[in-house]
Amino acid sequence: MSTTTTSITSANISMSPRMRVAMIGISLVAIMSVTRLWTGFDNLTSSGTIGAALRLTVPIMLAGLAGLWAERVGILNIGIEGMMILGTWFGAFGAWKYGPWIGFLLAILGGSLGGLIHAVATIRFNIDQVISGVVMNLLAFFGVRYLSELVFVGQPQGGISQSPPQSFAIPKIDVPFLAGGPVGSSTTPDALGWLEERGWFIIGDLSGMTRGLMSGLSLASLIALLLVPLSAWVLWRTSFGLRLRSSGEAPEAAESLGVNVIRVRYIGLLISGGFAGLGGGFLSIISSSYYRQGQTAGRGFIGLATMIFGNWRPSGILGGAAVFGYSEGIKLVAGGSITGLFLFILIVSAIIGLISLLQRNIKRGSTAIGIGVIALIAYLTVTEVPESLTQSLPYVITLVVLATASQRLRPPAKAGVPYRPGGGH
Amino acid sequence: MSDTAVAPSGPLGKILTPSRASGLRTSGTTLASSLIAVLIALAISALMLFITGKDPVAAFTTMIDTAKNSDKLLEMMRRATPLIFSATAVAIGFKMNIFNIGVEGQYLFAALMAAEAGSHLSLPGPLHVAAILAVALISGAAWAGISAYLKVRKNVHEVISTIMLNYIALSFIQWIFNSFFRDDSVEGLNVKTTIIAESGWLPDIVEGRLNSMFIIALIVVAIFWVVVYRSRFGFKLRASGYNATAASTAGISATKMTVIALLLSGAVAGLVAMQSVLGETHAYGPSATPIQLGFAGITVALLGRNHPVGIVVAALLFGFLDSTSAQLQLAEVPNSIVKVMQAIIVLTVVIVNEAAVRRANVRTAERARAELAAGGAA
Questions:
Q1: Which of A252, A403, B123, B288 has its CA 20 to 30 A from that of A354?
Q2: What residues of chain A lie within 8 A of the CB of B160, using their CB?
């Protein structure tokens, strides 16, 4: 018993973080594969699910990055939802009038306009950041309604809560040879698709997942995904990023070293609004081909949630957004019959529970086993999960994470604290 | 995030409890600054109308003309009623430096519970109504209680927890409504819970125009004033909200005050949709029960500066603006401008207020410095 404990613990310590992530990733895929072969629930790792998951992940991830850029410079942004709404409207308007790329540009500008209003209210006039964000959401919601009434009403298929459909779309890519995309005018084999159809243990799953990312991939998704490493690089590897982060961690100290905290905070909020607007534009240009009232459906707040339990880091935000994107994607593809997912959760929590108990981490072990028991009961009894309950999943997870793991989270020290130049004396 | 919760002089504290020199002069300044803010907001709205090719003068004339109609004044009061409840709920939180963004979820949950409970009860008139109100109060408080628990036991900031609980409430309500509470005998889109028996209806003051719920709203505001400004408990609440650390040295438990404030806030929030449940629809229905009133309540509370009188005035103003929208549409002005105008009003009021407080603080400091200098000379 004791030897096992030591070996597991020492294995954890000696492994580099990257190795650990890779190990965990491979184990999860293996468990998914077992579940798939056992239950015949192929959608668990099918390319269709992963493709849908990616499209659903991107807007949430962009909202999360919007939160990151705001809070890292020290401003809470409850108004992401509103800035996304501006993005959906301006994006759809631009795409309808001038084509999708101009649409994205206008979406970013629209979101930045929201960021600018939030910045003027909180930085110039020093009003409470939460209040400003709440008002921002209302202003955007009704503001675009007003604009729709002026611009969309009377247009074919347009109205107060809907824009006319766009006629051009962003090109989609199928990677040649791997996912059967064409080279020139000739077709190429769909290697991953062939492997996925065979459905071999692990290989079939990995092929399906990779193919999901490689076929029907919108250029916009690709660009959006690149914004994650770009954000990480700018914020943590450039002197500009250092200034941005120092404004959120210790603005007085930053000021004493010559950082113009006010300007940095303005820039941060403009970028934050731009990210939120881009996320909104993605919804109204890629996910659908028109603007619709209520299109954001709380994704701004889900993004805020991913930022919190992504621990204010780009990779964490991507991970959190992917979890929500995946759970929405599998719902979309498989409907309510996601019993295979319960089995997956059951196996994962059983393994985590056992390891934790071996490590004498009774609390985590019992929590994991508790979740496993719930998953077992759900697997045995539930045949169809009500749509209305699965909708609330991101919000429930956020509260659970905040309630159980908040000591491990580290928000920027001065996020939410108003700042006046020279106030540190 | 957590900083706002702990810091006693945090951003909320600054706005919500401005330092006061003398009562009379401050309320004069408050009134003046609020009026200036409303005027600025009207100017911005006029500019917006003008830029988008609409005639601001015609729009404002239409709005003012509406006020001459007595029916419209009753509509103003009817529309103000739920706003008074939700603004009071928000204000109770603010007094303890708690930002309850969750009124939306709390009142919808309470509306469903109260309507369902009411449809099962058969009691004599006033008792039936009282029972439904009690269920609403308790349900609202219960939903807010989750945030209270998360805040004091798990240190989860109430802004985040109430936002999340709003969404959780929406899907939870949808689920129990569709699975258990829906009256399946009604066909079509306008599904509801079973209609409450007539003994559980609250009579109108003016038939078809204004329900007695308006009176109850005024009573609740009066109670709010007495409890918060004239009772020992209210003093403790405000003291703890202003500076929790200082208050705790006087034996006032911040934890206890937080829990009580959130429960009270949630209870009052539970009454928001009662005008609809008791006086209009006599049931809960996804399309029949009004939504978005929780967020509107935040704006009304901010505009009314969390003061009972201010809240009633602000709610009536917003009720009036809402009541003009039909007329505006006839005058070919998009009526969403009303809601945009409300948001702009709130933003300018908060900004002007913040500026006024800062100026007052600077003046106080200057006066103190002058007095010190004079004292030193003597």
A1: A403
A2: 304, 308, 398, 402
- The average pLDDT across B118-142 equals 93
Across the interface, of B154, B334, B351, the residue whose CB is closest to A149 is B334
Residue A419 lies in a domain: no
Task: Please give the Cα distance from B22 to B26 (Å, whole number).
Answer: 6
Q: Which residues contact A224 (CB under 8 A, 6 or more apart)?
A: A58, A61, A62, A278, A282
pLDDT tens by residue, A44-95:
777 888 888 899 999 999 999 999 999 999 999 999 999 999 999 999 999 9
Q: Which range marks the domain in which residue A271 is found?
A: 49-173+216-325
Inform me whether the pLDDT recorded for A9 exceeds 50: no
Tell me if A135 and B350 make a contact (CB, 8 A cut-off). Answer: yes
User: Does residue A300 lie in a domain region?
Assistant: yes
- Point out the residue among B10, B101, B351 whose CB comes nearest to the CB of A121: B351
Residue-by-residue DSSP string for B83-143: HHHHHHHHHHHHHTT---TTHHHHHHHHHHHHHHHHHH----HHHHHHHHHHHHHHHHHHH
Q: How far is B199 from chain A (nearest CA, A)?
A: 33
Contact B101 A134 (CB under 8 A): yes
Across residues B123-129, what is the average pLDDT? 89
**In degrees rounded to 5, what are phi and psi of residue A237?**
-120, 0
Interface contact flag, B14 A128, Cβ < 8 Å: yes
* pLDDT attached to residue A314: 94
Rounded-to-integer distance, Cα B132 and Cα B150, Å: 28
Task: Classify residue A247: in a domain, yes or no.
Answer: yes
CATH architecture of the region B71-331: Orthogonal Bundle (1.10)
The alpha-carbon gap from A132 to the nearest alpha carbon of chain B, in Å, equals 7
Half-sphere exposure of B199 (CA within 13 A, CB side): 13
Q: Which residue has the higher pLDDT, B136 or A256?
A: B136
- What percent of chain A clears pLDDT 70, i.e. is strictly above it? 94
Taking residues A262-272, report their average pLDDT.
Answer: 96
Helices (H), A152-257: 191-198, 203-214, 219-237, 239-249, 251-256
Residue A407 within any structural domain of the chain: no
Question: Could you tell me the maximum CA-CA distance found in chain A, to the nearest angstrom?
Answer: 76
- Is the pLDDT score of B255 beyond 90? yes
Predicted ipTM of the assembly = 0.84
In chain B, where the domains are located: 22-54+334-356, 71-331
In angstroms, the separation between the Cα of residue B320 and the nearest Cα of chain A is 18
**What's the rounded Cα separation, in Å, for the pair B167 and B173?**
10
Q: Rg for chain A (alpha carbons), in Å?
A: 23
Chain B interface, mutation test: which of A68, A72, A120, A130, most B Cβ atoms within 10 Å? A130
CA angle B290, B296, B302 (to 5 degrees): 160
Q: Which of B172, B299, B354 sits opposite A125 (nearest CB)?
A: B354
pLDDT tens figures, B49-77: 888 888 888 888 888 888 888 888 899 99
Give the total number of structural domains in chain A: 1
